[in-house]
Give the backbone structure.
Amino acid sequence: SDESLVTRDDIGRIMKLPKGSATIALPLNFPVKSMDDWLKIKPKYEFSEARFNADWEEKTRAAINAGKVVCVSIPGGYDEPRELMGEIELSYAFYEQPELVHDILNTIGNTAEKVLDRVSKTVQIDLLSVHEDMAGKSGSLAGPIQIEEFIAPYYLRAWNLVQDRGARLFDQDSDGDMNSVIPAFLDAGVNMMHPFEPAANMDIVKVRETYGNRLAIYGGLDKHVIRKSIEEIEAELEYKVPPLVKAGGCVLGLDHRIPNGTPLENYKYYSEKVWEILNREAAKL
């Protein structure tokens, strides 16, 4: 219609995308409510040779020769069951259908292990990544107990394999307030997180003070501040950049996309000021 685009995706969900006002489609239904539902689509998640493009090794070696970091990713231990069930059904399933959640993650884990085993035998993997987006401003949608029981065993299968073959970073992507579950994910092998959303109480200075170099940091500069005054931009940068430069183990950047309505002059000031502080602090080391 003139207002929206409605499609069906590859796992059977009906997706609605409002035109002109959104970039991510909203699921109107979910394919999995029971074990029987899951068994119908389970073959999509099982291993097959079709998962390897014919030229994957050639492209990877070319990237290595160009000095690039080789990254591999696995589906989210929370995010993929959520895509199949929705947040509400998954929340109930942790308690009422644990065997279903375990089977989903065991299936994905088996496939990930087979793919990663072949890849890591052939080329050096530097970074394992996982996308979760499992929190909002009020906290994580799964707690430490659920992470320990369901997600950590899945994570560790993949991480232990690639770490034993030289991978150094396990990066988790999740917006929202993840403070309450950082320890659980550290135990699950994660040693890097992003984007550390300040609007959701994620303060990279406090995180570094709490966890030291156990957790590498990527992001963390408040995207909303660059819509405000020059003084507020400078205060944000002076608070966060010096201690993180001193500690190391970080890639500083905005915590997400540049917000609509950001004045160009503000963004130019932010870009110039952050480099000024970076260079100043680096000279002290």
